[in-house]
Amino acid sequence: MMYHHHNHLFCQCRNLSSMTSALNASLSSWRCVVSAAVILSSSMTSPWSYSPVCLTS
Fold first, then answer.
1. Mean pLDDT across the chain
2. pLDDT at position 45, please?
3. In degrees rounded to 5, what are phi and psi of residue 46?
4. Considering Cα of 11, then 17, then 22, then 23, what sign does the dihedral take?
5. pTM greater than the 0.85 cutoff
6. Residue 25 has pLDDT above 50, yes or no
7. What angle do CA 9, 14, 20 make, to 5 degrees?
8. CA distances from 25 to 15, 36, 54 (A)
9. Predicted confidence (pLDDT) per residue in 4-20, tens digit
10. What is the pLDDT of residue 56?
11. Burial degree of 41 (CB within 10 A; 0-12, 13-18, 19+)
12. Degrees (nearest 5) of the Cα angle 17, 22, 27?
């Protein structure tokens, strides 16, 4: 019974870590989208200052 409880805690901890990594991935992709939008708007205002930050990172 003690082992089962420990196993349950480990499972929850693993779920939390996978949730955190998924959150990190969505945050990085969101940051990529934001930087792409900023680049797009800045390239519309001045086409010569275009620099693909999202593609290089």
1. 69
2. 64
3. -140, 105
4. positive
5. no
6. yes
7. 125
8. 15, 16, 14
9. 555 566 666 677 778 88
10. 47
11. exposed
12. 125
Longest alpha-carbon distance in the chain: 67
Q: Could you tell me where the DSSP H helices lie in the chain?
A: 2-45, 53-56
Q: What is the pLDDT of residue 41?
A: 79
CA distances from 57 to 24, 26, 37, 51, 54 (A): 15, 15, 15, 12, 5
Tokens of 49: 């200052």
Give the integer Cα–Cα distance in Å for 16 and 3.
Answer: 20
Q: And the tokens for 15?
A: 């779920």
